[in-house]
Write a structure and sequence with these properties.
The protein has 6 helices and no strands. It is mostly helical and 126 residues long. It has a single domain, classed as Up-down Bundle (Four Helix Bundle (Hemerythrin (Met), subunit A)). Helix 2 runs parallel beside helix 6. The two termini are 22 Å apart. 35% of the residues are buried.
């Protein structure tokens, strides 16, 4: 059975809360990973709502936006591109020490904060 819109949004909210939990625990690159997962699930809910189709099995946020024909304002678009790129690194990392050096507390805090804003923007698109 396909997920409902409400289930996609419940999971998106759960994942952004998990991102915050990871941040508070000092697991900064997992913060980024969970932020991306939250955006992905929210966009898949929007995809389901807008296109009346089961969303594709993809992690690419930009692909989902393009398939829906949504062009966000530049700051949101740039952030989603940045998050999309960061998620590949956090999902398929080579060395733990490199991730820990690249995804510091300030970087993770910025991404978490912007992710919360973008999640609200996605929800406003319904």
């Amino acid at each position: 059975m396909a997920k409902s819109l409400q289930e996609w949004l419940r999971q998106a909210d759960y994942d952004i809360n998990t991102a915050e939990y990871m941040f508070n625990g000092g697991r900064y690159f997992y913060t980024i990973f969970m932020c991306h997962l939250s955006m992905e699930k929210a966009l898949k809910g929007l995809y389901l709502e807008r296109l009346k189709e089961i969303p594709p099995k993809t992690h690419n946020l930009i692909y989902l936006l393009n398939k829906m024909g949504i062009k966000p304002e530049e700051p949101i678009g740039k952030f989603l591109v940045k998050l999309n790129e960061a998620s590949v690194v956090t999902r398929y990392h080579e060395e733990l020490s490199t991730l820990q050096k690249d995804f510091t507390q300030p970087v993770a805090n910025d991404i978490l904060s912007k992710s919360k804003e973008v999640l609200q923007w996605i929800k406003a698109q319904f």
